[in-house]
Design a protein that fits this description.
75% of the residues lie in helices and 2% in strands. The protein is globular and about 60 Å long. The chain contains 16 helices and 2 strands. It has one domain: Na+/H+ antiporter like fold. The C terminus is likely disordered. The chain has a two-stranded antiparallel sheet. By secondary structure, the protein is mostly helical.
Length: 386
Amino acid sequence: MLKKITTPFIHPIRELAESGKLGGVLLIIATLFSIIVTNSKYGEAYLHFWHINIGNSFLSMHIEHWINDALMAIFFFLVGLEIKREIVSGELSSPKKAMLPLLAAIGGMIFPALIYFLFNHNTHNAHGWAIPTATDIAFSLGVLSLLGKRVPLSLKIFLTALAIIDDLGGIIIIAVFYTAEIHFTYLLYAGIILFVLFLLNTFKVRKFIFYFIPALCLWYCVYQSGVHATIAGVLSALFIPIEKIEKYEHYLHQPVNYLILPIFALVNTTILLSADSIVHVSSPLGLGIILALFLGKSFGITLFTYISIKTKTGELQDNSDIKDIFGVSMLAGIGFTMSLFFTALSFDNPESANIARLSIIIGSTLSAVCGLLFLSFTLDKEALNQ
């Protein structure tokens, strides 16, 4: 009896999980829930909850900071594992393989930043230029997967490699531009811990516990140094033995995508909807983000890819052409997770943060819908001609 009742609910969830789309669905649900509660009679209590202080004299932070600084370090650890795997044995393992997505990613970061800066260079929001430079790898690949077998493998590989390089660029931006005051003593301690991790890797230590404890210490030292603590997650991942990386990626995939990122969405999409907030979407901040994600990403990626092909520094595979790249580049305008993360780093002002978050959702949605429609049309046409 119980099986008959639960089967209609379990099967769709299992299918979503197997297709890789469940994480995206949970992010959307978490975002909608957060927006609805924020604008309900429970909104004040909901916002207050995320600012409850937890900790002791050794380390104390708001719940919001525990999520953005500590829990997201696990997400960045997974990103670091993906970056290392791709560099060592994947699509970034040789200059020839890496050049096309590398140049595309650079174009896809430069142009959004320029568009944002064009709108906001004379305002107090200018320091949010990094917000539209990000690509949400899970969402963009999830939308691309909706087209099924019509998508050439080369396009999936291109978007994956591009998004990974994009993440690497985002990590560099966090380390360089979102570091306020440096405490060199803690930075020195972090350097010593990194050397310990290097020795563990060099002497082929394989048990994860011997990496886990130094990684925790590294997180604390990086946090206290003034550098954003999530950088510790990436740095730790770079010293994990390469033969263990796929195993750890497998272990972390579900908790990161089905738990950590939805929780991150809950705390970072507390968007107050009002007549003023809707109007402010057309402000320099709102337009800067929306147009940077939608136009900046698609134009920058397509242009730099075209230059790479024409200069023969890179080449497309599987009969893909520049139209396909343009469609994929629109999907790269789905910033969401990393864009929200940059918003949390960029703005202490709740009003600016609110406008930025709403604009990210609009820009990302526009990019997803237009990219999907464009690729659906062009790929269908190509299929008919074959």
